Amino acid sequence: MIMDKNNILFKRWVALLADLVRRASTELPADIVNGLRKGNSLEKMSSGAQNTLCTLLDNIDIARQKSVPMCQDTGTLSFWYELPAGADTVFFTEVTHAAVMEATSRGWLRLNVIDVPSGKQITDNVSDGNPSIYFTTSNKIRVRLLLKGGGCENVSTQYSLPDTGLDAGRDLEGVRKCLLDAVWQAQGNGCAPGILGVCIGGDRAAGYIKAKEQLLRTLEDSAPLPELAQLEKRVLEDANSLGIGPMGLGGNTTLLGVKVGTLPRLPASYFVTIAYSCWACRRAELFATPEGEEIAYG
Ligand code: SF4
Question: What is the pTM of this model?
Fold first, then answer.
């Protein structure tokens, strides 16, 4: 069936989603801003770390005031939809694509997608598999969006336990060693201070998606299982004692948060997957009616 893109419902959803993209790209969530401010207060006066964090905070303010992207890399877009059973996912895929095109034409997204292997720019940021869209069933309509930069994606990584080089076994202590190794290897690349989205278990592919999804959680949020909440807290403290600091220039603010989720695994494998986000952890969400009217946003 051919979609009527002049239909009022279609246009309303495109406008709603394009604005969601604008918010994600230009308005850093309050909890991340607070995390950067807190880091700033813990750094030595006039140190490289403090100067870097001040520059980031100024940049974040300007982006919000002028409604312009906070970073030149507007990232890979991932949309997570929660929709009532039987909802038309083709419709939501089409409106998402149209919204990304609209946000690109308005300058809220940089032209950021390159065809492989031709190396040619994709002129509207929409292509096969881009943006990523995930659907789950719910009794409400909720859309969550994450913009994740390429620099931090380069330092995302995956471990297979046991890992003899790290002396890491198949337990939470082994996971902790992997997470600290990933932060140490990154050394500020990926634009620290970062946030670790983590998945323990799953297969390689599912682990990366689940790890990325953890980045939708706020910095205040703790894992529901006490042992995972404890792991999140411990790794955050340990990582911030490594001295890597903002952009790897030294200091106390290497990570802003650690968010751990799990998936079931096979007996033969035990993966630890890390989606490393830079400070620009650009997430936004909305709740809406089926008619495309926003009820609330976050
Ligand atoms: S890693 Fe993040 S902050 Fe660094 S350039 Fe990429 S999007 Fe920007």
Answer: 0.96
